[in-house]
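Lecture notes, unit on protein representations.

Consider one protein chain, 133 amino acids long.
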Amino acid sequence: MTKNHETHPRSTRQPDLVIPLRLVGVAHGILFLAAGPKYQELLKQTAVEPATPLLVDGQRHGMLLRVDASRDEPLLVLQMDPRATFRNGAYQARLRRPLQRSATKPYAVDSVEPAPRAKHAARHPAVTDDMGS
């Protein structure tokens, strides 16, 4: 039995921070999500722990592969589950304290999920797939 579509309960505590993300590309099941330049320093201090989920309606639809904060516009790279349906639009990353006591960075990505449909989505219009897939 696969655990890819298991339901993930919401944490009872509030996450430390939420970073708005916009879709900049999708190709072969890989999502490329960009954070604004003002989040570069924060993302440089953020670790990617194993199996960080991409959650859609509380279900796992993929996982975070890496955070590239060396760019002017930091990039989060996620791999979608092959059975997951792609959702175009704004996303958000939830940060928390790292789980590992030996962590060298003060933050870790808790999850990536579609952003609530609100003013945020209007400020960050989605970019369609321009990567040829």
